[in-house]
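Re: folding output
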Amino acid sequence: MARGMKRHARGAAALVAAAGLAVALVLSLGGCSAGENAVTERDLEVARQLGFSDDAMASMDSGAWPSDLERKQVRHAEACIDYLAERYGFEFSAVSATGEPKWLMHADDVVLRIESGPFAGEEVHLKYDDGMRDGRQEMEPRFDEDCYYVVNHEEWERLAAEAIAPVLAELPEGSLVTFTSMSRQLYPESMTSDPVSQGGGNGEVGVVIALDRCGLSESEAGELFDEFYAALQATPLRGRFYLRVLSDTSSLPEFSWQAVDEVYRPYRPFASRWFSSGKKG
């Protein structure tokens, strides 16, 4: 009789342990502990920003996530908000978050809106990888973002324009058009640790010289390429410089960068080269 009671006791204990393990697994979706998985007031605020349905919000109001997908959408958006807020000092709100990777990529697509400062209203994009693999934290979270572009592109473009200005001064007014643009791309943390004045960011600089407006020969105009390139190479900027030399611009509706680009973008430029001084400070 005593042995039977002991067997029943051991069986009950095993059932309790198994039930406890199941509860622990349910409360640890995606590697979160029970405490980390609890719905917070901030979660509710971000869920509203993401436009969750009434049913989803009702579930969260009762303390339960509608599904692991919604939890990831909210928590990934929060991680991105915290990262950018610390990095740039602005307030952000959530616009969208996929909550799960696409195809074989591990990164989530997140869109935020800047809510304070001079860039308020701008939307910024991130690729966020939480570093989780099969429920385990295998690497540090990674953030690739284009808020760096929003904050810094005017400075990058100003520095590029200033660099080539002395060379432009050698040509008659109205004989050329220029284009300077920092690339709007998702920059990793390693490329956003420096301001553009110390090598941060990438971009493109273009110059179009109209021979019929300046009196230069093609070879003379082409010789200016090295001067432009040297001027850019002397800066801390990184990017691609290209030169177009046009013999006749009379057929263009106007001699502007947009008009030239619409006609000639499919054609190779006269010359192009990547510049990167690698200087810091």
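--- second protein (sequence, then structure) ---
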Amino acid sequence: MKSRIMRRTVIALFGLGLLCLAAPAAAEGDAAAERRARWEQLSPEQQARLQERWKRFKQLPEAERKALLERHRRFKQLSEEERQRVRAAYSRFKRLGPGERKRIQENYGKFKRLSPKERHQFRRMIRRIQNMPPERRKNLLKKIRRWRNLPPDKRRELLRRLRQRRNGQ
């Protein structure tokens, strides 16, 4: 499901801007002639890719098409620098293995389910970690990995001890 959403987002970000070229112009005029001219400048491979994306786009439910168009509109409103960052992040994401991409998508889903207050706290924590000196950040991440590798009963015991220590027991 999340993979499908990611694919649809990708279609919006990288194909939707040109998808209008794949649709036949309904009205004659300067805009239609301009679209036709841009379409004709594309290679046959580019035209085929756009036609396939257009076909997939048209098969989406109306609500999803509207959501993709809205994402595309917001993407187009970004500065060129911000768009480059989005493209670079997507490029890095695509180079990851399927397992790592799935983990990222799951974590993003968890983040989206957080309350606004929890999201704010999470972002603040991430900024603090990013601003740490490299050695200290490295040590913290090492401890986090060790924590994640602990069996659940060991984690519970450590948390119980920490609570006791905090409460002065």
